[in-house]
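hiii so my PI (J.) wants the whole complex modelled not just the main chain, which honestly fair. so below is everything: two entries, each one labled with what it is. i double checked the lines twice but i was tired so who knows lol
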Amino acid sequence: MLPVTPIPLDTLRRLETPEGIELSLRVAGPVARALAWSVDGLIRYGALWGLLMVLTMLGGGGIGLWLIALFLAEWLYPALFEVYAGGATPGKKALGLKVIHANGAPVDWPAALIRNLLRAVDFLPLLYGFGLIAMLCNRDFQRLGDLAAGTVVIYRDPLETMSQWPPGPALSPPFSLSPAEQQLFIDFAERGATLNPNRQEELADLLASHTGQYGVAGIERLRAYARWLAGAST
Amino acid sequence: MKQRPFEERYAPGWQAFAACLDRLEHPNAAQKASQTASLPVAELPAAYRQLCQHLAIARSRCYSGSLLARLNQLALRAYQQIYRTPQRRWPVVLHFLTADFPQRVRADAGLFWLCAALFYLPLLSMGLMVYQAPELIYSLLSPESVTELEAMYAPGKTTADRKAADDVAMFGYYIYNNIGLGFRTFAGGILLGVGAAFMLLLNGVFIGAVSGYLTARGFIETFYTFIAGHGAFELTGIVLAGVAGLKLGWAVAAPGRFSRVEALRRAASGGVRLILGVVALLLLAAFIEAFWSSNQAIPAEIKYAVGIAGWLLVILYLTLAGRRAPDARFLSKTDQPEG
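here's the output for the full assembly
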């Protein structure tokens, strides 16, 4: 058996592929999705407003065309983009989100239609009330439309981390570490850039009994261990 | 092997792999002055399997999170390129309309009759009640709406009242309103079927009330020649939208041997295909309603004949079309028979 990486305290969805490996998807929560929806709303209603100005000049026929445009914007705009633009409406793209099948495959027409037609219910009683309740009731933040279509909304790109850390000495840790513990050291070094110095010190001080160092020296000591564990050439 | 040497050994291969994915994901983007040579597409599957192996190794050796994340991302992108559903267009559309859709309707005959009852019983009873007591219409419609309604169907209106441009405007309105209603009926079904059943009842009550009222007022020819042409397609479309909706509700209420979510997913997969057929029916209805029903130059006899022909066509289509077509031949893999 593989020594499975510990289940992270993160909104990750595990997905097993036919090749026998596990991929992880970072599912997106309600806030990012609400923002994406607002961006889409601005785009849609902006375009409809512009179109109305133009089409009213054409009289009755123009109104008919505008109503068809309204119908398409309301029901099919998200589905069209999700199928033909890599799973993301412009709003989702702006927030780095995309829709995929829960089995990892790109979203296809039936699924895109289901999830977007069921928006009508997710939106009830107002502003995605049912959708929010459904999202909070399952691990993958799926609203009702996502549940019925078997889709999830994920972040397109992995979290930014620093894979190149500043050079420095590499030190063999004077204690034995399990593989998972070794990974914690390397993760600490890699995520240094995303933590502020105080937080780094705070974390490093937790291990002071092992490193014998406090404060900045402790951080440096942990980084040195991490370099050795990652196999950096000294 | 420690992480750094591992990364250094395989990084060039990963870069070529990523370049290949970039090219597949953005086929239109002009090949940027790429510093890294892209892998030939034919070698992608083999390279993907190798990448999976690297990811598995990296995981079992507990390499760092950022390396795992990078490999995970590459594997995910390749997975989406390799396991995508093939896009087949016109043959599928044709097969859907000539065989698949009527087959699906027949497969749900029970739900169809239930929805028909939920729609036509209120329609008929409301129609009769309002015919007996026309003032009942005011319990549903405001006096202004009733005046408008009367104005619309009052006999003696001349054709000159309505121009071609108005026909297009009404066509847009019927699409926006009727197909939107069909979609809402379907979506409402997920609430244990209540939403769909409610929409059927509501539509039945309103259509019945209006018909009863106009009949009682004696606007028979103007009203019935108007609705004759598109009635078959529109009323059947409404009922079938209810069927699609109740399928969802039924799956949630009685998932049988599946988990509730799995049952819902299967029902939605069938339901959305019914809804596509509903869209086709309602589009046809909207077209007829806007450009044929509104044309008062056509004699009443012809309009009634066309109306009856429409009903025959719908009945024959739903009962006979696709009887001999091979079942489930073009169906996608997500589309297993519902349990």
